[in-house]
Amino acid sequence: YTRVKKYRGAKTIAPLDDCVVKRKFGNYFDPIYKIKIFNESVVLKSRRKNSKVKNVLNGKVIFANETALLDKVVIIENNNGIHTIYAHLSKIAPTIRPGKRVRKGYVIGRVENELSFEVTQKNYHIDPLDLIKIN
Fold first, then answer.
1. What is the H or E stretch that residue 72 is in?
2. Most CB atoms closer than 10 Å: which of 3, 5, 71, 88?
3. Nearest to 75 by CA among 40, 33, 117, 113
4. Which residues of the chain have pLDDT under 50?
């Protein structure tokens, strides 16, 4: 069970410049397994290969590493208990390491074509599309 909270703040930039939403946040019916799944992230598909991934809010890097399931992941702690999670990165920028403060718009890595982007606040998940503007 996933606890969800509505985001009420101002919208910010998207982590990819030229992208489309491939998979939305929330309940999703998997056509292959015929089960309902809850997506805690959104999948953004870049229209360009090897796209830059940008930090969407000022914050501090708390995790930047390769993981078994999500490839390369960067997690940034932002104000108000918000964490932004960028997963399936093809590269993490060499300047990105835990403890580094990063401003909104700072390039944190690159993605081949799809980025999983997740937003949490304290113990709740937030629909990332409430936070970011997709052009």
1. strand 71-78
2. 88
3. 117
4. none
